[in-house]
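Contributing new complexes? Match this layout with flavin mononucleotide.
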Amino acid sequence: MTHFKKKLQIGNINIDFPFFLAPMAGVTDYAFRVIAKEFGAGIVYSEFVSAHGIIRKNEKTLKMIQFSDFERPIGIQIFGDSPEVMRDAAKVVYEKFKPNLIDINYGCPVPKVTKKGAGSAALKDLCLMEDITQAVVESVPKIPVTVKMRAGWNAEKIVSTEAGIKLEKIGVKAITLHPRTTVQMYKSKANWDLIKELKENVDIPVIGNGDVSSIDDIKKMFKTTNCDGIMIGRAALGNPWFFTEIKKYMNNEDPKDISMKERFEVCQKHLDLLVQTHGEVIGTNNMRKHFGWYFKGFKDASALRKKLVLVKNYSEMKDILSNIRH
Ligand SMILES: Cc1cc2nc3c(=O)[nH]c(=O)nc-3n(C[C@H](O)[C@H](O)[C@H](O)COP(=O)(O)O)c2cc1C
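Output block (do not edit by hand):
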């Protein structure tokens, strides 16, 4: 407990519980954010949203930004390759949606994004990163702009601390560091020493990210890096209860086993929210991958997962869930 940070301020936002739900494309839509929030996430983020799509007012893109007041504080994450486009996109996001903060993605390693110069490609060109960041910071003076980045393009070019110092000077209000390189993708361990190094070199909050999946990891992350908050990605997949577990630990309360009944109930709610957001066909399809995560590692889970993955529509999925529960 000794090393757990309890609060965090990012610009004008007070965050009472410094544990963040990571932005995850195809995952952290309205449905999953609401569920993570109900289980205690201190702040949630949208999936990364294309700045080009935003300025073209692409309907699908703008829909990805919609959120409810219940989700606040919320960050909308944008990515793009040009200062002008990012500036205009940030302005649209602020004026149309008024999120609590705008986060810039300098971490996405996917070639489809980086080959156009967006996402973690900026780590190869810190001048472009500075120009983009400056443009975004100036375009939304009323809300904090934060950055989420990787450590560098490859092991020969680690730039997180150098970039962090520059970003702070420009007016970025917090930095989340996932200390892997672009080339590394998700291989080997995240190098938490780089989070420590960044924290020692900037005064704005540093959010540690990468490979945190237990209370022990949280203890180690705070101890190793002295970071101000922790962002959780993959460990929250099918496991929004992780946020409750952290809260209980901080309050000296015993951890609670999650009953199968509760697991099914949360699945049902998740499914309903997905269908409400995306319609029956897409919502039901999206839910298949979540089922895999909710029931990973459970006895008889693989038979159940297979059954759920094969169902054809919403009502069949609902029937399976409610029949198993009783
Ligand atoms: C399915 C998936 C989608 C992701 N999408 C995004 C994204 O849209 N924006 C972003 O900054 N990072 C994205 N990430 C990276 C995560 O936010 C996080 O940095 C990474 O998973 C490391 O944290 P973890 O070890 O807690 O999962 C994604 C990760 C996953 C697994």
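Reviewers usually confirm one structural detail per submission. For this one: The chain has a mean pLDDT of 95.
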